[in-house]
């Protein structure tokens, strides 16, 4: 059978690293065709010439760089000298600046062409093996990234005869396969590329392979038999590209060829594996962010000359890459629009990505010219039941578990357990991504795929039923999580809910939306009671308010009561103590009518807690003791521990220091027994405050340091408060620099989340540091004391506006600071300075605090 592969020199741009590829490819192809007419040169000589041309070097230029003779380079390229010495090979590789993958192929080509070299001289004797054949197509753009993948694919191909590159559409499977095959061809292997994408009839797979190999049909035998016979004694790598739409026929033919032809290896690309015994798959994941940005910039530069990533546009380019999941084809389509839109405008327009990303290469296959057609290709290959599940999965936000997918799909489809095999098939076909963290498996759709599926869901009019099924599933999950709150260790409990926050946000948005289910929404807000501190303050306020606004005569009193309890906690966190008390009082009235003993006890707890802060200590302590007595310790250990902490503060305020310490210590025992790290941190912090108030500052510092060493599981309010307290303890011990560092850390953390009360506490500690620390001069000391007095005046005004009294540590620090400032300025002077500060804006106060 005559060889019909094109000489390997004709496809060199498939392996270029990116420097002047278009120019090099054209020059190289012409040069190689001229040489092919006269002779078949050595594989190493061809490869050396290719790399030299890629670098834009003449033989003389390369000789100067490598510090060898131009005549020697000419001899190597012509094949007169088949293999350089090892030292010469290293000099050439360094001069050509080859990356590790291409250097390995370069060295392998040298070894392959030198195998027939005689031992007594440096010139080989014929006959010589012809150059490795190849019909790999030319590529005209640089290949960015994927170096690790190419190395992994090369290793797989050394050990296995069938390797399949899988991945979603647009992930670069074809281009990566071409690069991997080109490296093998450069190392001396025959390669045959077979493009299956144009086939509309699966029965034409064998014909496509035969045509690429130059195999003729025979009337008396099947084409598959002819193919197998022609390849039985050959060594060749078949690259079967785009198998997914003819997967059954490709699988059959690949299996037959691998069984019959020992020298045949296959590198396939497909959105799903061929599933043949002995197959090894390599999943092409989205590009890492830095590589994705490089690819975008490279393709954008081809459209808008001199396009580069700058400090100004880098955030937008990063966002584009994230929104497009680092998928190469999507990035190329986006980069094609830089002539029309700035990166900032592209970000805004990507919400309508299927209208925007339509400027693909007109010479590319139709499915690769627009983002929609790319995903259409995969969707149209799915059977009806897989399409149905695919559409339903777009309803999830932030990923999903198999269990939640099963629950939602069974409700939507009326099936029982059908999602298992369907989901497995969608994963196999690269339409669903798999993520494993800490032994847990989650699934997700890429963002563009999710947009596409949502469009299809809306077109099918299935969105209302699917959204309702999703919200109901996550209500049930929230209720399960709520039920686990009292007993489960913090780390395990958080693992239950942390991955699902986005799904709960989506369920809430639908429930309180125009076509939602407000009754379901109210129940969901209640079920999330212990999780709300994980949400932002604005979110918490929005959804609690939305739920309360829908309460009517038909709302169960237990639901309304719990909503008011959540409202009371929200007000407390924001320092709105009277509002917190009022909400808890409303909850108590409803709980008594619904005869819910636990809600009654929780209402008493919230009211008692608020009364302490309002200065009504005796009333508050009485309600707290009643709440603790009403609940069985064995039923609600976590709630009991929280109540004991509140009671400890009540005892301290009433002068019972021993009782205060006892209550906090009991809460600490419960927390440590059940691994309630958040309660443990609060108990330690409160014990630290008690120690500080009674004069043992060193013990207070040790306790708060222990509190801060605990795992930070959720929320953050307690941690911010502990850091602020540590600043006060360090200040008391005269460790001003460390105190300043802690106060600024607390200030920045509070700014980030809008924690206004603790922010004011941090500003007070900075005022104290300014007023009390030693200064280099009397002038500097005076300036610091003035700033401290004014800042303290601002804090006074701010806490008054928030109706938030100072807690133990802040009250003690306040007394000491006022005494020191009065000594410096006199009673009248400090009043005037504090009055000045009380008129400051938030921005001015923040700026002054940061100057300390």
Task: Characterize the structure shown.
- With 852 residues, the chain is mainly alpha-helical.
- The protein is built from 40 helices and seven strands.
- A five-stranded parallel beta sheet has the order 2-3-4-1-5, with helices on both faces. It has a two-stranded antiparallel sheet with strand order 6-7.
- The longest helix has 31 residues.
- The protein starts with 20 loop residues before the first helix and ends with a helix.
Q: Output the number of helix runs.
A: 40
Major beta-sheet overview: 5 strands, parallel
**Helix proportion of residues, in percent?**
55-70%
Average pLDDT score: 85
Tell me the strand order in the biggest sheet: 2-3-4-1-5
- Helix-and-strand structural type: mainly alpha
Strand residues, percent: under 5%
Q: What's the end-to-end separation, in Å?
A: 87 Å
Strand runs, count: 7
Computed CA radius of gyration, to the nearest angstrom: 36 Å
Which helices and strands appear, and what pairs or packs with what?
Layout: H1 21-38, H2 43-54, H3 59-66, H4 70-78, H5 86-96, H6 100-113, H7 147-159, E1 162-166, H8 173-186, E2 191-195, H9 205-213, H10 223-231, E3 236-241, H11 247-260, E4 264-269, E5 280-283, H12 289-303, H13 314-323, H14 328-335, H15 343-349, H16 353-356, H17 371-380, H18 384-393, H19 402-413, H20 419-428, E6 433-437, E7 440-444, H21 447-459, H22 463-484, H23 490-497, H24 501-511, H25 518-527, H26 537-549, H27 557-573, H28 577-594, H29 597-613, H30 617-630, H31 637-653, H32 657-674, H33 677-693, H34 697-709, H35 717-732, H36 736-753, H37 756-772, H38 778-801, H39 808-838, H40 842-851
Parallel strand pairs: 1-4, 1-5, 2-3, 3-4
Antiparallel strand pairs: 6-7
Helix pairs in contact: 1-2, 2-4, 2-6, 3-4, 7-8, 10-11, 12-13, 12-14, 13-15, 18-19, 18-20, 18-21, 19-22, 22-24, 22-25, 24-25, 25-26, 25-27, 26-27, 27-28, 27-29, 28-29, 29-30, 29-31, 30-31, 31-32, 31-33, 32-33, 33-34, 33-35, 34-35, 35-36, 35-37, 36-37, 37-38, 37-39, 38-39
